[in-house]
């Protein structure tokens, strides 16, 4: 099975997880730079410990060093170009362009860096897919406004987005204003730069922050289309089908409710209005979200051109979860699905779940779909200069096969496939580079020590064949799961 020649095969990274150099050339810290390498990373930030989290230097903060992509982007992109990829997703660091987020004029050095990245990509004929905000906002805006809780951030973000869209007019076709907008409900400090105290309703802040991001998204589309009518704008969500734990009707309805909440933000971005269930949901949870008539007009008029998403694994839920085993998925915990094996990763492997998710999103939205993150985060063993990551090949192969089946057998329009962390980076959930995703190994440990040398893994050669064959190599290569069970039974 193959795809058309214009299919986008590539990889993805984010500024916050790769660039490092967090105080270089005028940049100031972002929220992501205050995520320590400990078990507090994903926990909501409350006001009684906020200052200790935002001001302490007793911990190691992986984002501040990353993998030094700010200095090594030329050699990194050259190595990735040899894969034969035709697309590359990266993000722009807001605080590299507007260090506090409130400057009237941008930091020219920061703009030139991304200009140079685009020049390198163009020299290899690699299409850029650019995320304007990938879990990244200046820490000044967290301290002054409590992040996206404040409507003030809409204007500040739009000023930033307008600046980069104007500067790079004609050089970037595909824009993603926000990464995984629905994650403001699961990892709110990372997704929205918001903090809480004992007197606030966290849901109130999270949904109000989400509304402000939706407004900023719509205004960015409106302005971006005026700057360049050929530009395409996409929603981006953390996706994955939620299964009912059993066929018991209450479990099935629990899964429906879970999916409604997870798809809420993409619903608004696609349809231009809030889903009908939200009126009752807001009332039931005592939420008073400020939504003006002008807000409604703006959302309705400026919807997205495509729906992009991350997929790592499916989820599972029940009406009564007490006593049931839980496992990790992308940014939150879910019930362990007894019908899925657990491979060499923190989540359960569910390749067919990708095809199911593609069908679900296609049926719901009828927009072109774009897989902009998929991959396996796990430890690799470096022996000499070799990394035999057959488990990653297994994961990627089976997901790519289900992607191609969705295209060829189900008739779903998919723009492309970007593997996440195509070069090793620091993970969001753990901050550890040892939770590796890439087909390129970066010789650094979790504390940032090491040569930084880049080494292709076994998966590098394999992915190169997949790209060259337009996916056919995934079917030519028959693999076996870690448990010994064939994927093709």
What does this structure look like?
It comes from Vagococcus allomyrinae. Keywords: Glycosidase, Hydrolase. GO terms for molecular function: beta-glucosidase activity. The structure is a single chain. Helix content is 39%, strand content 14%. By secondary structure, it is of the alpha/beta class. The strands form 5 sheets. It has an 8-stranded parallel barrel with strand order 1-3-4-5-7-9-13-14, surrounded by 5 helices. It has a two-stranded parallel sheet with strand order 2-6. Strands 8-10 form a two-stranded parallel ribbon. Helix 7 (152-167) runs parallel beside helix 9 (202-227), helix 9 (202-227) packs across helix 13 (293-301) and helix 14 (351-365) packs parallel to helix 15. Strand 13 (369-373), helix 15 and strand 14 form a beta-alpha-beta unit. It has one domain (8-242, 307-312, 349-476): Alpha-Beta Barrel (TIM Barrel), CATH 3.20.20. It is built from 17 helices and 16 strands.
What does this entry show, briefly?
The chain is an alpha/beta fold and 489 residues long.
Question: What would the keywords be for this entry?
Answer:
489 residues, TIM Barrel, 17 helices, globular, disordered C terminus
Produce the secondary structure layout.
Layout (H helix, E strand, L loop, with lengths): L7 E5 L2 H4 L26 E2 H9 L13 H13 L5 E5 L2 H4 L10 H16 L3 E7 L5 H7 L6 H16 L6 E5 L9 H5 L2 E2 L5 H26 L4 E7 L3 E3 L4 H14 L1 H8 L5 H8 L8 H9 L4 E5 L4 E3 L8 E3 L4 E3 L15 H15 L3 E5 L16 H19 L5 E7 L19 E3 L11 E3 L1 H11 L3 H5 L13
Helix pairs in contact: 3-5, 7-9, 9-13, 14-15
